[in-house]
Amino acid sequence: MRFSGTIAAAMLAISALFCNTGCVKSILLKGQIQGTRQASSAADTLHDYEVARHAAFAGLVQFEGMHKLAPANEDALFLLVKGWAGASYGFIEDDLEIAEDMGDRPMADYHKQRALAGYERAIQYGIELLSKRADGFTEARKNADTLRKWLRENFVDKEDAGPLLWLGYAWVARTNVAKDDPEMVAELWVGVTLVQRSVELDETYAFGNGMTILASYHARTAQAELDQSKMLFDKVFALTNNRALLAKFNYASRYLCAKADYEGYKKTLQEILDAGDIFPEQRLQNAIAKRRARRYLGPARMAEIREDCGFPG
């Protein structure tokens, strides 16, 4: 009896040891993921586009691993949503535009599929992240009114602005890449509604990025809501003291294009190229804006832009 009791006690002790070890590992992993999210904004201060590019894709592999180890961790999901959305726009779409300007259709199609896959992955993780806060996203997508109602009932805190923004952004950006796909274009409203709720909760989040997205959407055609677009762009410029060059790039390529303002378009893109290190907190985003501005002023892309925007020949 004493022998059996000793074995039982030993087994209990071993079980407790394994439990404690597992708990410690879980706590350490949670802390590592939380710290990674808190430190991730440091990448925004990088001045070197190529360094940032390599770091972004290496970071995505790290975030995927974190999610594998802690599938319920919301910080890991957030890093994946933001990471895939940002890398798809900042780096994969850059490859796509280079191939397009070179007239390399097979390579352009390849990078287009890469961009779509990146945005799809961001959307997948974004929906998963929202499901940690509330059930019913799929049912709420019946129409804009039902989705808006669901968002306002379930996402009421300022901290919810981030997940909603990056999911909405990925949704809108995917539509922009696949603008020849009627099914995707028909669901553009989902991304717009997500971003609208993010802006309602905190319009200053990510230096007004949500307002920039909405401003660009409202300038989608010459017949769209251009007054609303201009109002939102002006709010972003005021919020950032006119230092957010990606907002200026979108102002030129969306609003000034829709207005067929050729001189304003050229002037704004040149201002982006001439700007110095004016926004250290968003140095990488400004570097991306400069690359785009240079490309959009270049002869390879200007012929298409003239036609799309109605600029003089």
Give your account of this protein's structure.
It contains 15 helices and no strands. It is mostly helical and 313 residues long. It has a domain at 48-202: Serine Threonine Protein Phosphatase 5, Tetratricopeptide repeat (Alpha Horseshoe). The chain is globular and about 65 Å long.
- CATH A-level architecture of one domain: Alpha Horseshoe
Q: CATH class of one domain, please?
A: Mainly Alpha
CATH topology name of one domain: Serine Threonine Protein Phosphatase 5, Tetratricopeptide repeat
What spatial form do the alpha-carbon principal axes imply? globular
Report the helical percentage. over 70%
- According to CATH, the homologous superfamily of one domain is TRAP transporter T-component
Order of helices and strands: HHHHHHHHHHHHHHH
